[in-house]
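Q: I have 214 residues here and want to know how they pack in 3D. Can you give me a structure?
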Amino acid sequence: MMFDSGVPYARRHGLRLGRERYIRRGDRYWIPVEVTKLGEGSFMEAWDSGINTARRLLASGDLSITDVRQAWADFPYSPPADLGDSVIDPPGGEAFERSFFEGMRLFDVLRRDYVKRRYIQPLSADPGDHRLRLGLVRTKIESEDLNDALVIAMPLLDTEHAAEAHYLMGCAHAGQDDLAQAIASFERAAALKPENQFYKGGLEVLRREAAAGP
């Protein structure tokens, strides 16, 4: 199963868990998840399994995607033609709604548990692990905890990872639709690492967006 990440191609500079973790479909990036793994481990493990399967199928030319919204239009719900002696008592809409929101709640619990184990606890033990801090900033951007991302990135500005920190802060500002601050952060990143084409590319995208206006 794949979920729309909500990130369009034009804002791909904000995808800093790595674009290899997503499937691009049309103008958006999608998250493939192996749903059978959700009850066995963390969401990230289900994501890992999903993207590995999707990439393998993509490489072999066997990846086939069915848009559920379109499928419902072509194959609307209907009861079986011959029920025989069976009696079907489908749950009402409220039951489906409760199930959906419970699934979203568990999704958030899994995500927060992963972040705690993968980043928060190790950083509490070793605050000087700058690479791990960068990973946490990227994760916060992905989950749209943008203020947290900015605060967590600040200590990195005085380290050898300053360019990456400025870039990630620019991604967070862009996510907040603060293009002026985002451009300023990207410019600082590009100035520190002028050879980095990724920084330059992101800066060009933001400048075009700013020039185009609202």
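Q: Anything worth noting?
A: The chain has two domains: 1-68, 104-214. The chain is about 55% helix and 5% strand.
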